[in-house]
Each structure stands twice: as structure tokens, then as C-alpha cells.
Amino acid sequence: MMMVESEEPDTMTDTASETGLPELAISPENVCFIAIKAREYDAKDEPSETDPASNPADDRMYSVLEDHPDDPVRQEIAAAIAGLSEDEQIDLVALAWLGRGDGDITDWEDLRKAAAEARTGRTWRYLLGLPLLSDYLEEGLTAFGLSCSDMERRHL
């Protein structure tokens, strides 16, 4: 589906009413930001260095490709998700489930309801545990006729 760009900022309410699709509580930009950061995070590998006190220049900076508990990408994703409202977090989980194939766009309200019922307050931890989170979020947006590449083009 090709999106028409306009000079006026588009809102999910306008898009939802024009297409007949359900409304999203979370902005596509927020979803895309989290998806892009999740892709960075997924590229990380288990730490292989037993002595992290070595000089990063000596180990060719490989440590930036390793997953550490204090990883700044992980912290950035956690902060971004924790900063969302409850409804936005519910939509984010429902989008991940939609993208994972747990239902289709006609099941959106059921997915949202299940996400709300499963909510524990650690949404970021749950989502970071999904190995294909970025793919799931992007697939979920696709069901709404949106894509992160469209968002990137508008902001670049």
C-alpha cells in the first residue's frame, strides 16, 4: 500500500477513519523508534570476553557488539517503553502479537484485550525477550497499512 504524503501532519484518527482500520493509541513513529532500536539490540551477541578490563582498542571494539546488562541500547529501549502510557504499551504488545501471527487485523480488539490482561508492569522486559521484536512490530504496522520505511523517508 502506498502512502500519500501531505504537508499537514497526519494523525492516526484520520488514517483510521479513512481506512476503516482500528485506531492505534501509540504513534507509528514511537513504534518505529522501538523497532529500530530492537534491531540494534538483536544484533548483539553473548559476551565472549572473560576480562572486560582490557583496552577496547586492543580488542577492536568487539565489546560494543556484545550484550551486557548495562547496554545503552537496552536501556534506551527500556526507557522508551517505560515512558509510554498504559494504552500505548498495550498497543505495542498487541502489535508485536499481530506481527507474530497471533491474529489478524480483525482480531485487533481481542489482541489488545489479551495484552491488557497479561500486563505486569514490565512491558519492556517482556518485549525485549521476544527475539524478533523488530520484525514483529514492523509486521504489525504493515497490517495497519503503515511501515517504518515510510516514516524514515518523511524524517530524513
Automatic annotation (TrEMBL):
Region (Disordered): 1-23, 42-67
Pfam entry (one): DUF3775
Biased composition, class Basic and acidic residues, residue ranges: 57-67
InterPro entries for this protein: DUF3775
Compositionally biased residues, Acidic residues: 1-11
Protein's name according to its UniProt entry: DUF3775 domain-containing protein
Organism encoding this protein: Devosia nitrariae
